[in-house]
Amino acid sequence: MILKKVHTLFTLYFVVTVSLMSYQSMRGPLSPLYFFRYPINYVNSGLSFFIESIKKPFVATIAMERDNERLRSELKRLQLKEQRFEQETRENKRLEGLLSLKNDIESGGLYRYVATARVISKNPDSWSHLMVINRGLEQGVKKDMAVRTVEGLIGKVIMASARQSTVLLITDIHSSVAIKIDEKRLEGILSGTGDANCILKYLPEDEDVAIGSKVVTSGFDALFPPGIPVGKVESVDKTTAGLFLNVEVELFANPVTMDEVMVVSRVDEKF
User: Fold this and answer.
1) pLDDT per residue over 82-94, tens digit each?
2) Are 225 and 111 in contact (CB under 8 A)?
3) CA distances to 56, 59, 63 from 53, in Å
4) Which residue from 161, 164, 158, 167 is spatially nearest to 122, judged by alpha carbons?
């Protein structure tokens, strides 16, 4: 019986010894931390998961902010592109209108087409209403030629250089244009006031001038060609002297807002 117990213990010792020797041959010397390896791995895995769960929303927020910034930049680019497209569309419409007007002028015979010009500077202040256009002597533009838009008259050339010209607007206080009221064939002088509207002078106070009557150039000043639309009668009052009517004219074309204009001359103008 005792011998059997000794044999069993010896067998158990042999198995444990062989097992430890086999582990050491494969894994190296047995470390005391071996038995704590799995708890440490669990703690490490837990910490890693906790850190990742905290970090993930921040990473997603940063990525979202980058996407938003990219989208904002793209939106600005598209808005600028849309604005340029709208500006080009409006410009094309204006140029189409001027081209149609040119064809009408050439077929009508009242005055001559000289050049289409772009406005390159404006000076509409209380003292002088001037603009500069990018056409001059080389394009046939000369002093005293009329300047108009599709809507109507806006001024005359007062100085021309090789490639530029200065235009005095009809709203200037020193401007005057011989006109007539189309329906009544009444003649008068249109003068600038330094404001958006002009004043029609020297109409007898006993004349019946209707509000809304169309005003056109008469051509009797030997400067402006006849028949160019100017504006319409906005108000009619008698002057304090009682000799003439005080007639205010609303212009068809606001010179301050123009970007493209047309230079025309009288049919009897000598080139």
Assistant:
1) 888 777 777 777 7
2) yes
3) 6, 10, 16
4) 167
